[in-house]
What does this fold into?
Amino acid sequence: MILFFDTETTGFFQDRLPVDHPDQPYIVQLAAELCEDDGKPISGFSFIIDNGVDIPAQASNVHGITTERAAQFGMSAVSALSAFTHLYQRADLVCAHNIKFDRGVIETAIARHYERIMPLRKPLFCTMEAATPIVNLPPTERMLAAGFNKPKAPKLEECVRHFFNEGLDGAHDAMVDVVGCRRVYFHLKTLEMAA
It folds into this structure.
């Protein structure tokens, strides 16, 4: 079985800092969907999380979750992580778009709330990395200035537009992104089988 997941956060995960560093971001929304190997969904959830911290306006502008909304509708991070762990234990493969980011924030939340570092050890698949050479976006000016002349890693919305010729309505809602990631994953698998 395959676990697709996505997080929305208070900021950017900092991969130069340890996962248990206090400057790492908090998860404000966690969504996950466990699917059979053919893509049939088995179980899933989408939770807003109240960590009792302020959500910066810059982050709220991206995902729409404010400090007030999290306080009113959010559940505890421990409850959300428990639901995630339940699905994770059943998965053979874990998949996300930019999995390095989502993996980091999940591991940070585990370190924060369970006071131990527990890396995700199951096989991982990143739709962003796999789609990069296929979508083949030109490097940005910033990439070129830094000496990188490789394709730009596509956002999930860019993958959906490239593969399906449609937008990703509601992008940056974690469950919308999970469904988009699942679609991209299975499309990549069909391309792989056709090759």
